[in-house]
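The pair is set out directly below:
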Amino acid sequence: MIAAKFHWELCIYQVNCLVSGATGFIGRELCHQLAARQLPFTALSRRGGPLADGTATVAVDFCCHDVDAGLLQGVDLVFHLAGIAHQQAEDSAYEKINYQATLALAKASEKAGVKCFVYLSSVKAMGPPAGSAVRSEEQLCAPENAYGLSKWRAEQDLRSAFAASSMSVIILRPALVYGAGVKGNLATLAGAVRRGLPRPPEIGGRSMIAVQDLAGLMVQIACEPPCGVHTWIVCDGQRYSARRIYGLMRKALGKGPGVSYLPVWLWRVGAYLADIRRGPGEGSTFDKIFGVELYSSAALVRELPWQPEFELADIVAEIMAAPVEKSQ
């Protein structure tokens, strides 16, 4: 694993944290960085499996149960990462886990005297982009699926319910998160590159963020929690087209830039066939590969002394070398 470039000085104050979704892709990195800062934390996971270093987690299935109030006693800050991500699920499951369980945990945290609640939302809560411009936090459209809607509803209710609360609420909207063990579209593209995918056309582009940088931001918030309610986009400021990602993945494998021999219309046909094979409800494959989703972290950088330390080029070798891990 690439060592984070963060300065691991201890926090001025002792902060007791609780992390839901601790064995997920982002949760594992967050717990690793909390341990490196010697910040005590309680880790929650759906099945109760241990972290890689053997740290025990408490089993909490947000589909069926709320967090026991006893787990929140003495906790200063809650990181709520648990939720259903981009996968096929019933709309009711997104409603229950991403929305209702989030509000229930936030209210229980306030009642227990927690000082800060950090909610990991998503840029998908902002709805699909209306064009190719870089978007700020206020540039919103109606979410296009149950996942985005559940995140948006949770955001809205957190902002309204805790606007006057003594517990600060930090809503983070990360763009696509990359790192070793990543799943989803990046893992699919990595597999296709290994199998000899031809070089994609130079169209589209999206914002992303390294999992190390996202977790580092959350640790910084734990050390110096802002007051009030804030909503911030998190990305690394780079524009990643499918061709740029493809080139970096090829380079990590020790290969050249690849050969372009498929016109854009054939990529459209291939994506359309993939849509048919996968079935309805997952969105356009072509848009996922070649669409434009660009975001700005300018508001976050203005408000906090945070800057991303990584770009995909720093992490891509790990992505190509590491097997995809399963959450516990």
In short: The first strand starts at residue 17 and ends at 20.
